[in-house]
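Q: I have 500 residues here and want to know how they pack in 3D. Can you give me a structure?
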Amino acid sequence: MNWKKLVITVFRMAIGWHFFYEGISKLFIADWSAASYLSHSTGPFAGFYHWMGSSEALLNVIDPVNIAALILIGLALFLGVFVRLSAVGGVVLLLLYYFAYPPFGGTLASGTEGNLYIVNRNLLEALALLYFVFVTEKGWGVYALFHSKKENTEGAINVETLNSRREALKNLAAIPALGVLGIGAFRDQKSFGVDTLSGATIQVGGVDIKELKKPVPMGKIGPHEISRLVAGGNLIGGWAHSRDLHYVPSLFRAYNTERKIFETLMLLEKTGVNTINIGFPTNELMAKYKKLTSSKIKVITQVHPYMEKNDYFVNIDKAIDLGVDIVQVQGNWCDWLVRDNRLDVIEKMLDRIRTQGYTAGLASHTVDSLIVCEENGIVPDYYMKTMHHDNYWSAHPRENRVPFEVDGKKFDDHNKFHDNCFCLFPDKTVEFVQRATVPVMGFKVLAAGAIQPEDGFEWAFRNGADFICVGMFDFQVVQNANITNDVLDKLQGRTRKWFG
């Protein structure tokens, strides 16, 4: 047995199967397109890939050529036909994939393979194929049949002829092997479906942007034009408000890897959602996203004071240094400061934000906080207020609700607060919003998933919200954008004029 030749053959066939199956998988995915993969490219040549991904005419050529190239290169390598030519084609294709998401400078695709720098699977496989470009030995394969020796003129089967026939069988062995692997792949696909996130393909959460009816409409807060639907940061940050399902926050964080977050942000921008409201810990991630993608997404960041050091401005200044667009006093801190009669801190923080040339927001869970601030002449550039009705099962009884309890103790008793109700007094909230003379952004409009989007969006907009802030997974983005448009197009019963 020629072990060296066997190893080379298996090595060549393994690479060939990888190419072939990638191509066949894409062939069987309905409406598969490289558009998402190209449009989300990063690195020094991102503009070239984005240009290809944005052209429908080019994609009509790129998509079938990509699939055909993968299948033909894969078959050639697996069977051992035109090995050198297919290896050259494979190297070119892999390098195109490599430079679409190069593993340097914080590539978005690195999350699928681990922590990488310079070297990734595409580069390694391209280097492996170079062997078949420059080295004579190609292993057993169909190509070798054309060089087999003839039987002697007398028709006698000598040892040399017998060995030639044995070599021929070895060279043909790839054909039944391809059949066996093909049957196994077919059965696997029939049972589990095609993996739409395989290899060089990136499809954002399986969501087709073509389902978007139209971009989300815009409004204004200060000098900023922002979408009526604003992305929330809780799902990205892992703050799930999942009541007694304690595993859910960690599940959210496991799903929303850096790559998945970036894909979600890209999808949001495609729907017209151009603003995200984030907790302070997410600032560095958003700064990285904007740097890598040159995104113009507007970032609203929530800030809080360091009371133990009497430093009210440290997070404001840090947020500004990280390139945020709008700065907002965090909701729970507004509630605590009002509760503790420290209105002076809120006033100083808002003044600091404004003197730095930034739009200043004030958030709250308990409407009493905003009422007290208003009564004392503290009015921000916009309010952010929890806005949802309480007509859902897990909401505890109104008569048991206490101001400021949202950020306090969570009880096991269903009749008391247990991370389940964030707009404690909806009627009082609506009354306050109706008389507000600055824009209002409603948040927690779905009560952390207890209310259907169609219901929660409509209730908030009808009762005076100018914008709504909603945490979204990637697979919810297009649907939420469409619901926002449907609700606004059909909205009835709103009496408050639109601000912003």
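Q: Anything worth noting?
A: Confidence is low (pLDDT under 50) at residues 108-112, 149-159, 194-206. The first strand starts at residue 218 and ends at 221.
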